[in-house]
Amino acid sequence: MTDQTVRTVTLQQMKREGRKITMLTAYDYPMALLVDRAGIDLILVGDSGGMTVLGYETTIPVTMDEMLMMTRAVTRAVTRSMVIADMPFMSYEAEPADAIRNAGRFIKEGLAHAVKVERGWPSLPCVRAIVDAGIPVMGHVGLTPQTAVLQEGLKVQGKGLDAARRILEDALALEKAGAFAIVLEAIPGALAGVITNRLTVPTIGIGAGPNCDGQVLVLHDLLGLFDRFVPKFTKRYADLAGIISDAVSRYRQDVIERRFPEAAHTYSIDQETERALQEM
Ligand code: KIV
Q1: 25 CB near ligand 1 (under 6 Å)
Q2: Active site residues
Q3: pLDDT band at 229 (very low <50, low <70, confident <90, very high)
Q4: Which of 157, 153, 178 has the alpha carbon at shortest distance from 168?
């Protein structure tokens, strides 16, 4: 750990000083290496990896073992960023004891620095339990994809006054329960601004406008690597799917048309050995 390493105290300081916090998801070693080197403060091993890299339809089926494998790959790569592991659906809801055990696995086996859980008041007992066990917890309110079925799908939340008040109350309760930061997903920018002003811990927005203390995006959306579901709030900074498809097609053509491999890609032996080999 160095002076540059990001941990929960760094985030509090950044909020106090009005410096924006950057967060991205990552699910494997090579991507985590690049994200960490680019100076992103927080890396979330999101359960979105279940969709973007494991190919599930939703985040619901992702297991603890799958999340742990992705978390270990990411923490092996990272030197500066703080790594947060997303607790998968049903790894924390049933009993606070389950929540502690599973959060503990992310810290001991995955070497993550913190965990994230979705939802407000239903998650409070588990947030308190995990924090009491000595593990930093990030909250997540607004649109919560693990329980999207209760929210009429992947839709903006908190547009009416009552719904907005419930999200604000959830965020305040999570802060009181010990969450060190809270993700605000798919809520109106004005509501995110109010929540950000009321909380002492940082808010990290995704589809929550510019007034949050930080921003997060799903890496594969930003890179143009996942187009099965593209939310309105995503900004695409590259078209890696196009670049990769082009490279793979060119390789295929080169093999078919005998342009690859060339002499430069081939091991040679001395002529005498080669002659003897041909006669063998
Ligand atoms: O799993 C995930 O990628 C997330 C982000 C959208 C915050 O929870």
Answers
A1: yes
A2: 185
A3: confident
A4: 157
Is the same domain home to 37 and 123?
Answer: yes
| Domain housing 270 | 243-279
Ligand 1: residue whose CA is nearest its atom 1: 46
Distance from Cα 48 to the centre of ligand 1, integer Å: 6
Residue 218 beta carbon below 6 angstroms from any ligand 1 atom? yes
155, 273: one domain: no
Q: Is 129 in the pocket of ligand 1 (CB under 6 A)?
A: no
Identify whether residues 251 and 272 lie together within a single domain.
Answer: yes
* CA atoms 158, 159, 165, 166: torsion sign: negative
Domain membership flag for residue 2: no
Domain count, the chain: 2
- Per-residue pLDDT tens over the stretch 35-78: 999 999 999 999 999 999 999 999 999 999 999 999 999 999 99
Supply the angle between the helices 96-108 and 64-77 in degrees, to the nearest 10: 30
Q: Any idea what DSSP says for residue 226? A: -
Pairing assessment for the beta strands 137-142 and 114-116 based on DSSP bridges: parallel
| Ligand 1 atom at shortest distance from the alpha carbon of 183 | 7
Mutate which of 138, 185, 204, 226 to test ligand 1's pocket (most atoms within 8 Å of Cβ)?
Answer: 185
The Cα–Cα gap between 82 and 86 comes to 13
**Predicted structure pTM score:** 0.95
Which positions make up the binding site for Mg(2+)? 47, 86, 118
